[in-house]
Design brief:
Blueprint (H helix, E strand, L loop, with lengths): L2 H30 L8 H22 L11 H10 L1 H4 L3 H15 L3 H13 L21 H21 L9 H20 L2
Helix pairs in contact: 1-2, 1-3, 1-7, 2-6, 3-5
């Protein structure tokens, strides 16, 4: 596979985990500072739900199981780095790291739970789950702490891959994109303060 294509796809994957991680940080701040007496209680609940759903959908995209290899996932990227000698330079450290992470991910029940919750609740309103998230069986439930942990672990995997392959993979557009989005958020916050 073309090296440039791998880099571009890696950047897309990095963007997803970068934003999922920062949404999780923001979600934690909302939880820490929640006050049921706040005059913005409904707004806080809406923001909480939007962030939680966004994190879930991003993580489901990152961990999608796609046997056709048409989806840019963590599996796809790890395998691409593992098999592309222009990126891994036959470096045992990179290859071993990738194999170790692939093994951990393949043996993690979180991936199947993500798919179930995404398919039955987050992305679709499944008729067989008319009670919403409460319809999901206990074994398929993802606890908040578990979601936090997997977001952090995924971010760490991606950053480690960046460090290990530093001479080849760079994330070039994220900082510019963040500046533009931050300005939009700043404007929205200023508007909310004037309500």
């Amino acid at each position: 596979m073309n090296e440039k294509i791998i880099y571009e796809r890696f950047e897309l994957l990095y963007r997803e985990i970068y934003f999922a991680r920062h949404e999780m940080i923001l979600l934690n701040k909302i939880i820490e500072n929640y006050n049921s007496e706040s005059k913005y209680k409904e707004l806080i609940c809406v923001i909480y739900e939007a962030l939680h759903t966004s994190i879930f959908i991003k993580m489901a995209k990152i961990y999608e199981i796609d046997s056709t290899n048409r989806t840019i996932t963590i599996f796809y990227m790890l395998k691409a780095i593992q098999s592309n000698k222009d990126i891994n330079h036959n470096d045992k450290k990179i290859i071993d790291y990738v194999e170790k992470e692939l093994d951990k991910i393949n043996n993690n029940e979180f991936v199947n739970k993500l798919k179930t919750i995404r398919d039955k609740y987050e992305a679709h309103l499944d008729k067989s789950h008319s009670k919403g998230i409460r319809s999901i069986s206990q074994k398929d439930t993802i606890m908040y702490k578990e979601l936090q942990d997997i977001v952090e672990k995924t971010y760490t995997i991606i950053c480690n891959l960046l460090d290990l392959t530093t001479s080849k993979i760079t994330i070039s557009h994220i900082d510019k994109m963040i500046d533009v989005q931050y300005k939009g958020i700043e404007d929205a916050i200023n508007l909310m303060e004037n309500i």
